[in-house]
Specification:
Blueprint lengths: L1 H12 L10 H16 L3 H21 L10 E15 L5 E12 L2 E2 L5 E6 L11 E7 L1 E2 L11 H7 L2 E14 L5 H13 L5 H9 L7 H10 L2 H4 L3 H15 L4 H18 L4 H18 L6 H15 L7 H19 L5 H20 L1 E2 L3 H26 L4 H26 L6 E2 L4 H16 L7 H12 L6 E5 L8 E5 L2 E5 L11 H13 L4 E6 L4 H4 L2 H7 L5 E3 L8 E2 L5 E4 L2 E7 L13 E5 L4 E4 L5 H13 L10 E3 L11 H7 L3 E4 L12 H6 L4 E4 H4 L2 E6 L2 E6 L22
Helix pairs in contact: 1-3, 1-12, 2-3, 5-6, 5-16, 7-16, 9-10, 9-11, 10-11, 11-12, 12-13, 13-14, 14-15, 14-17, 15-16, 17-18
Length: about 750
């Protein structure tokens, strides 16, 4: 049985690596092969294929509706509200994020009812869960940025079961329901903890309401490794289940199982049946069923059953980082019980810290070195005091607000102590360490060395692993690279050589706190090991170019700042005629003639040359600036200097730029349009794309970040979405295919 379960799990997990989503023709082939394997009783191979078939059919069934979405059109949708998360931006901007269960799309019923997420940049009335809402919204398939570092937004959305996102345009009709029992219970709890400084954290611990937690607090929890405690997770469900077990044991084994499962189910409902709580509840249900039937199974078999049942219940769970972190953590604990007679708490924490490190580096591109210390000190306090007191307070809140307030006050005192300690250390030490890209594979190789040394017969791994480490450490020349980052509707270009870098523009910031510095720019800089920027060039003051200027300046040292707009007394004004050499490259400012007010036509146009190749960064200049630039070049007898191998198209491909005369003089072989996926302006415009018909073109919103390197006398260019698994690709990534792209 164990081998069959493992085979099914491996087959299902293989969907994370599929280069495309297989068509039904592939399904038919696999099904016939499965029948042949069943006839021959080749059970492990059969279950491997069944896992693959399950994921293929499930993914196609859940994603098929995306074919109904047309490019850049508003849709009339009717949906049921699942949850609402409200937030105010730093300037007081109103922002809400709605999680909806879609019912109809343009008056057509959609099956199965998919989860979608809609952002509302306007005030909304209270929307209790279960409310029916009809609205007009843009809607597009789940999408995220695609850079070589930073969060994989599309995988993150799919891991939550969200298959499409959009922005609210207007509400047509709203049928708000009366608050349900959860909302009424939450209202009673809010009355009880009113006035407590840690009320937002109490709401997160007990009801999974995380909207009140500030970004600064999340940074503290991430750096201390306590995020898994603050956000309701499997640990909370397990703790509640254990409490129910102890109470139920007073009335016998069967009662203990029922009460344990009931406690876990109620707590999951209080948390709104979030994805993480659903998974933990399924694991508790599997364990309860086995105990009810008095099956004395080994722990690893229960682990495998939970993995398989959860995959059958929610195939998208395999795309969630939390799923893999929790299951791998349990697997490491099972390994510890197998290798050690009585492992102590310290050993278990060290094992979890080291064993989860490669996965954490892969998923989050950083580490919290003090996680072990914080968990050893804070985990007992949370499990014995803070969480039980808060949960009991929730239970008694509808009965006695005064008693609940006292319990919440005690729980809040514990939270105050924890935050005081974390803040104290954060004021003297850097808690979260972003790490370069080479550390993840290196840590994995070192763990293999350790495992090979400790496990019987594993020392043969030493030679290949040692060779790999030696090759990785061998010095190699560092060529120059140019990256047009995927920053949505905006621009950010990184020119680098080794650990030296120049950044041209910084992308946009949005209400609610989301910004391109944290999402794309800083992760890429960390991945490349760039700790200091030799120059920060801000083409002009528009928010989609300069929105993260301060964030970049605060995050790392910048030797000089250049812009066509005087942001500060230290800003060096960008002006035609400026030239400098950097790491074998020559930079020349071609525009503006004089700095202006920071508008589009004042943009700082920079040409970069390594001798045989030229790259032109043209900011947001429009036809007037293009015309004047051509006149200047003609007057000085340098019109041929504008000719460039690569062009970052002006103004993201707007029809107000890329005039035929400008295109003819620049005559690029390669053109990159930095424009957001299905953006509301429909950049790049079709007529602009047609003007560059002789060039190879990319759009960052569709193709992801673009990496440019020298190759012979030409350029080697690679798009981030040209490679990788199916859900990261460009185009209709959700559409099943017979072969390739």
């Amino acid at each position: 049985m164990d081998l069959r379960l493992l085979s099914f799990a491996l087959g299902a997990s293989s969907s994370l690596l599929w280069p495309w989503l297989p068509s039904m023709a592939w399904g038919a082939v696999l099904l016939m092969l499965a029948l042949w394997l069943a006839h021959g009783r080749h059970w492990p191979w059969l279950f491997l294929l069944l896992g693959m078939l399950w994921m293929q059919v499930s993914l196609q069934y859940r994603l098929a509706w995306l074919g109904s979405l047309e490019e850049q059109t508003a849709h009339m949708i009717t949906a049921e509200v699942q949850s609402t998360e409200s937030s105010g931006g730093k300037e007081g901007d109103k922002f809400a994020r709605l999680l909806l269960r879609l019912g109809t799309l343009d008056e057509k019923t959609i099956r199965p009812s998919p989860l979608i997420r809609v952002n509302a940049y306007q005030g909304l009335p209270p929307l209790p869960a279960g409310s029916q809402i009809t609205l007009v919204s843009t809607l597009k398939p789940a999408h995220g940025l695609a850079n070589e570092a930073g969060m994989d937004g599309r995988r993150l959305l799919l891991g939550k079961g969200i298959t499409a996102t959009g922005n609210l345009r207007r509400v047509v009709a709203l049928a708000a329901v009366a608050p349900g029992w959860r909302e009424r219970w939450l209202a009673e709890a809010r009355l009880a903890w009113a006035g407590l400084s840690q009320a937002p954290l109490l709401a997160a611990l007990t009801f999974g309401e995380q909207g009140g937690i500030s970004d600064a607090q999340w940074d503290l929890f991430r750096g201390s490794g306590l995020t898994h405690i603050i956000a309701i997770s499997g640990q909370h469900i397990a703790l509640v289940a254990v409490l129910g077990w102890w109470l139920g044991r007073l009335f016998g084994l069967r009662a203990a199982i029922v009460v344990s499962l009931l406690f876990a189910a109620v707590y999951s409902a209080l948390a709104g049946f979030a994805v993480a709580t659903e998974r933990a509840l399924i694991m508790v249900a599997v364990w309860s069923l086995l105990r009810w039937r008095r099956r004395d199974w080994p722990s690893h078999r229960i682990w495998l059953w939970a993995f398989v049942v959860l995959t059958l219940w929610d195939p998208f769970a395999l795309y969630s980082a939390g799923f893999w972190l929790s299951f791998l953590a349990v697997a490491l604990l099972l390994l510890a019980s197998h290798l050690m007679a009585r492992p102590g708490l310290m050993r278990l924490q060290v094992l979890l810290l080291v064993g989860l490190l490669p996965l954490q580096l892969l998923l989050f591109e950083g580490m919290a070195p003090l996680t072990l210390l914080f968990n050893l000190l804070a985990l007992p306090l949370f499990c014995i005091g803070i969480i039980p007191l808060a949960l009991i307070g929730v239970l008694v809140a509808p009965i006695s607000t005064t008693l609940a307030h006292g319990l919440f006050w005690l729980s809040a005192c514990g939270l105050e102590w924890v935050l005081w300690g974390v803040n104290l250390l954060a004021s003297h030490l850097q808690l979260w360490w972003p790490v370069p890209g080479w550390l993840m594979p290196t840590s994995l190789l070192l763990i293999l060395v350790w495992a090979g040394w400790r496990l019987p017969g594993g020392r043969y791994l030493a030679l290949p692993v040692g060779t790999a480490l030696l090759l990785a450490a061998w010095p190699a020349p560092s060529p120059w690279q140019l990256r047009v980052l995927d920053v949505g509707q905006g621009l950010a270009v990184l020119i680098s050589r080794g650990e030296r870098g120049i950044l041209y523009d910084t992308g946009d910031r949005y209400p609610g706190g989301y910004n391109m510095a944290d999402a794309a720019i800083l992760p890429v800089l960390n991945r490349l090991g760039i700790r200091v920027l030799d120059a920060l060039i801000i083409s002009h003051k528009d928010k989609d170019h300069a929105g993260n200027r301060l964030a970049v300046l605060q995050a790392l040292p910048v030797r000089r700042e250049i812009s066509s707009f005087a942001f500060s007394p230290g800003t060096q004004l960008c002006q035609r005629g400026q030239r400098w050499r950097w790491q074998g490259l020559e930079f020349a400012v071609l525009w503006p003639v004089r700095p202006g007010a920071g508008h589009n036509n004042d943009g700082c146009v920079v040409q970069i040359s390594d001798g045989p190749r030229r790259m032109l960064l043209s900011a947001d200049i429009e036809k007037e600036a293009e015309r004047r630039l051509l006149v200047l070049e003609n007057a000085e007898g340098h019109v041929g200097r504008l000719a460039s191998t690569l062009l970052i198209s002006p103004h993201h491909g707007s029809r107000t730029s890329s005039t035929p005369g400008f295109v003819a003089v620049v005559s690029p072989a390669f053109v990159i349009h930095s424009a957001g996926f299905m953006n509301q302006w429909q950049f790049p415009k079709p007529e602009v794309v047609a003007r560059y018909a002789g060039a190879h073109q990319w759009v960052t919103g569709q193709d992801g970040a673009i990496l440019v390197e020298a190759e012979g006398a030409g350029l080697k260019i690679r798009a981030e979405r040209e490679e990788g698994p199916w859900y990261r690709r460009n185009g209709d990534w959700w559409r099943p295919r017979l072969w390739g792209w």
